[in-house]
Amino acid sequence: MLTRRRAFMSLATQVPSMKGLAFVSSLMGVGLLTACESGLQRIDRATNEKLRASAETLGGGAVYPEIDANRYEPGSYFPDFPSDADRPATVNPPAQDLRFEAIPQAKEDSDSIAERFARMSQDDPNAKLFTFEDAVAYSMRHSDEYLSAEEAYLITAIRLLIEEHKWTPIPTNVTAATFGSEGDGTGRFENALSIVNDLGVSQRLPFGGEVSASFVVAATQQLDDYLNSTDTQSADIVLEAAIPLLRGFGDVAQEDLIQARRNLVYAARNFEQFRRDYYYDLADDYLTLVLQLRGIANGERQVERSAAVEARTKALVESGRTEPFQADLATQNTLFALDRLSSQRELYRLTLDRFKARLGMPVDESIKIDPIEFKLPVPRVNPDEALGLAFRYRLDLQTERDIVDDFARKVDVARNDLLGDLDLRLTNNLPTDPLRPRSGLDFKPDYNDFAASLVFSMPLDRVPEDLRLRQSQIFLEQSKRQYFQARDNAAVGVRQAARGIERSQFSLVVQQRNVAAAMNRQAAIDAAPDRATARDRTEALDQLRRAQDSLDAAKRDLQLAILRYLNTTGQLRIAPDGTLIPLPGMDILEESGPGLIDRRP
C-alpha cells in the first residue's frame, strides 16, 4: 500500500499529461481490486481472531464459528441488473388454467385406501440409520437455525472490527482533476488542466478529538500559451488537531468502542446458550420420534392381539358358545386399532419430515431413526442450591446484569452531552516556496503558518439533549426491572425444572405399576379365556397399550427433565462436536456399557 501511494505521489508532483493521467487511473483501478481482495482476507482473519479471543474470555470450553468465505456471494463491482429487476415475476394462473382429477367413488373402497396408505407408510429398506449424534453433527453443518446463530455471532465481531478501525490511523488519498476555460474578452480562451492530490492520515484521540496530517500537491498545466502563461506546481504539509475540553471529552469519547466490545462478549454468551438450548430441543425432537416409533410398535402388537381376539370370538359365535354381537364388538376393536395405527404412522412421518427440515436435510432424504433411550442419572436436587447455581452460571442472567451497566453509562454520556462546546483547534501549514511557480518539494519553514484557537459554544438550546438524558434514565430503570424480572423468571424455571424431575420420577413409578397391572390382567384372561367376554379382552388390550405408551412417555419425560434442569441451572455443557459433556459425579447407570445413551431395543 505504501509503495503504491509513493509511486502515485511522485507522479502527482510532476506536470501532468493526459497520457499520464490515464496511466495513473489504470494503476488506481488495479490497486483497488488487489486491495479489496487482500482486505477481505485480512478481515476474515481478524474476525476469526476476535471470535477466538471472545470464546477464550468466556471460558468453559466455549465454541466459536469461523468465517467461510466460500459460503457468501462475492458480489460485482459493476453489476448489470436485468431490465425487469424492479418487477419480480409472479406465478398465479387463473382457475380455468388449473386441473383437478377426481377418483370415481365406486373405485375407492376401504380396502384400496388401506392398501395405498400401507404402501405410503412402508419404510425404505435402503434408508440410512440416523443416530442422535448424527442428527446433532448434521445440524451443526446444515441447519438454517444453527447457521443463523453463528452468523449473528460473526456480525457482532465484524461490528467490533468496524468500530476499532475508527480508532486506528485512517489514511485517505483524494485526487481531483479540473479542466477550466477562461476568456480574455477577445474571443480567445485560456484552457488549463489542474490536478490536486491530497494524501492524509487522521487519528482519533482516546480522550476525544482528532489529529490529522495531510500532504497536498497541486499542479496546473496550460493547454495553450497564447497569453504566455506558465505551468505551476506547489505542495503543502498540513497538521491539524481538534480537541474537545467540555462536551465529548474523557471516557465518553470511547463509549461506542466500549459498547461494541461488550456486545461481542454478549454475543459469545448468546451463542453458547443457543448451543445448549439447541441441544435440548434436538433431544426433545429426537426422543419424540423414538416415542412415536415405540407407540407404533405397541400399536402393531395391539392390532395382532385384536385380530387374534376377533378370530377367537368368531369361532365361539360359530360354535354357539357366545352371542353374535360379541364378534361385532371384537371386529370394531380391530378396526379402531388399525385406524389408530395408521394415524400414528402418519404422525411419525410428519414429525420426521419436520425434524429433517429443522436439521437442514432434504425432506425426501430416506433415513431411519435409531430407537435409542437416554440413560442420564437422576441428580440430587436442592432447590435453594439450584437457584444459587442458576444465578451464578446462567449466561443470559449475566448479560441482563451487564446491560444495566450499559444503560448506566449511557446516562453519563447523555449528561455529558448537556455541556457546552469548548474546543482547542491547532493548525500548522508548511508550504513550499510560494515565490516559485514550480517549487517541487522544496519546503520553506520561513513561510510556516501556525494557528491555535479556543472555540466556545454556549449551550443555549439543549432541549433534544435534555430529552435524550431523560430517555436514557428511563431506559436504565427499565433495564433494572428487566434484570430482576429475568431473575424471577429464572427462579420460576429452576423450581419448575426441579419439580419436573420429581414429577417425572413419580410418573415413571406409577406407569411401571400400571404396566404390571395391565399385564397381570391380560395373563388372568389368557389363563381362563372362557370366563372373559370379547369386551373384557378388548378392554384389556387397550389398557395394556395405553400403559405401555404412558411408560415410554414417562421415561422420555424424565430424561428431558434432567436435561432441562441442567440447562436452567447453567450446568449443561456441550462439546464442540455437539455431544453432551458429563459433569463430575455423573455416574453412568446402565448395563450396556459406558455412555449416556442406551441403544438396547
Task: Please give the structural blueprint.
Blueprint: H1 2-12, H2 18-58, H3 110-121, E1 128-130, H4 132-142, H5 144-165, E2 170-183, E3 189-204, E4 210-222, E5 232-244, H6 255-318, H7 324-359, E6 367-369, E7 373-374, H8 383-393, H9 395-416, E8 421-431, E9 449-457, H10 463-527, H11 534-568, E10 597-598
Parallel strand pairs: 1-6
Antiparallel strand pairs: 2-3, 3-4, 4-5, 5-8, 7-10, 8-9
The largest beta-sheet arranges its strands as 2-3-4-5-8-9
DSSP helix fraction: 40-55%
Distance between the termini: 66 Å
> Could you tell me the number of beta strands?
10
Largest sheet, described in full?
6 strands, antiparallel
Compressed to H and E, one letter per element, the order equals HHHEHHEEEEHHEEHHEEHHE
The poorly predicted ranges are 1-28, 588-595
Summed up, the helix count is 11
Please report the first level of CATH classification, the CATH class of the domain at 123-153 and 258-404 and 471-598. Answer: Mainly Alpha
Name the average pLDDT: 85
CATH homologous superfamily label of the domain at 123-153 and 258-404 and 471-598? Outer membrane efflux proteins (OEP)
CATH fold naming of the domain at 123-153 and 258-404 and 471-598? Outer membrane efflux proteins (OEP)
CATH architecture of the domain at 123-153 and 258-404 and 471-598: Up-down Bundle
